[in-house]
């Protein structure tokens, strides 16, 4: 176990009968970082997280959390907060009672009022959970996960159903937790959130990692794009592939600045207008789409 690693997964394999949902997966999460575990539908990320959280037995390989097996709930659970996609709180408990109950079960200490203030639910403290809106229930899920400022926090689709203001408040709370030393593991379908907040990303497809690294590492696997169009009869540029109409052009490049500079210099020297010019680096969603369009081989059975 690395001294700086909170989570260490080594050659993890999880099977359901003859089907391998996760195969030979290796990664680690360092203390204090935000690691986003992303994947296409059925990629195996839920099974992976359940193994790390101690909720699922592994078929082979090793998982260590804080240097111990996640199955050792007495050692691990008080240090870990989990925000599931659906928490299943009892509808007849009040908001304050729900937070207090989870706090007792976790073994951590905190103030219910403080936690409810973090998610702006203090005015709903005496309201029954069954009377909350979907967004309010999601904020309650987050409140119970971060009760006591746990050292390790799992956030599973944390902003689903939240309005923009609530999303911003949640991420501000996450930043505060990280400032206090918490490590965060995120799963989300909002790729722009992973791109903005994650230190590193593991991108799964069919039970294995297709990419792992920083956002810059992942986006460098695909070229950036320069797009523009020309007036009819204009001189064709020296680079780029024309569309069927012969007027629209796309330049795919791993040297965006150099090729954009060359294109602009060429156009300026000849008085050519580059209409609807745009230049954009690859985004995380582009990498995601490329994986879906080019599927990995089916894992060995």
Automatic annotation (TrEMBL):
InterPro entries xrefs: AAA+_ATPase (IPR003593), ABC_transporter-like_ATP-bd (IPR003439), ABC_transporter-like_CS (IPR017871), ABC_transporter_ATP-binding (IPR050763), P-loop_NTPase (IPR027417)
Membrane topology: Peripheral membrane protein
GO cellular component, one term: plasma membrane
Domain ABC transporter: 7-231
GO aspect biological process, one term: response to antibiotic
MF annotations from Gene Ontology: ATP binding; ATP hydrolysis activity
Protein name in the entry: ABC-type multidrug transport system, ATPase component
Keywords tagged on the record: Antibiotic resistance, ATP-binding, Nucleotide-binding, Transport
Subcellular location: Cell membrane
PROSITE patterns: ABC_TRANSPORTER_1, ABC_TRANSPORTER_2
A Pfam entry, by short name: ABC_tran
Record Gene3D superfamilies: P-loop containing nucleotide triphosphate hydrolases (3.40.50.300)
């Amino acid at each position: 176990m690395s001294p700086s690693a909170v989570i260490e997964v080594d050659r993890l394999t999880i099977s359901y009968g003859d089907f391998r949902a996760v195969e030979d997966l290796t990664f680690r999460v360092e203390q204090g970082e935000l690691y986003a575990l992303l994947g296409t539908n059925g990629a195996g990320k839920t099974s992976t997280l359940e193994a790390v959280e101690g909720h699922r037995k592994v078929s082979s390989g090793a998982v260590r959390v804080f240097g111990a097996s996640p199955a050792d709930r007495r050692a691990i659970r008080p240090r870990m907060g989990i925000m599931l996609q659906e928490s299943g709180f009892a509808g007849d408990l009040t908001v304050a009672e729900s937070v207090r109950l989870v706090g007792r079960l976790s073994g951590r200490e905190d103030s219910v009022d403080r936690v409810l203030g973090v998610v702006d639910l203090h005015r709903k403290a005496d309201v029954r959970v069954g009377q909350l809106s979907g967004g309010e229930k999601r904020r309650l899920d987050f409140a119970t996960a971060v009760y006591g400022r746990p050292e390790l926090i799992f956030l599973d689709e944390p902003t689903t159903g939240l309005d923009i203001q609530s999303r911003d408040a949640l991420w501000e709370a996450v930043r505060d937790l990280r400032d206090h030393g918490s490590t965060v593991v995120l799963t989300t379908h909002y790729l722009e959130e992973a791109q903005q907040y994650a230190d590193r990303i593991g991108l799964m497809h069919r039970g294995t990692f297709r990419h792992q690294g920083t956002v810059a590492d992942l986006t460098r696997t695909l070229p950036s794009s320069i797009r523009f169009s020309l007036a009819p009869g204009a001189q064709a540029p020296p680079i780029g592939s024309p569309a069927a109409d012969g007027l629209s052009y796309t330049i795919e490049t791993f040297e965006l600045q150099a090729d954009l500079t060359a294109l602009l210099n060429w156009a300026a020297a000849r008085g050519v207008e580059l209409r609807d010019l745009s230049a954009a680096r690859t985004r995380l969603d582009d990498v995601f789409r490329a994986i879906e369009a080019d599927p990995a081989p089916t894992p060995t059975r």
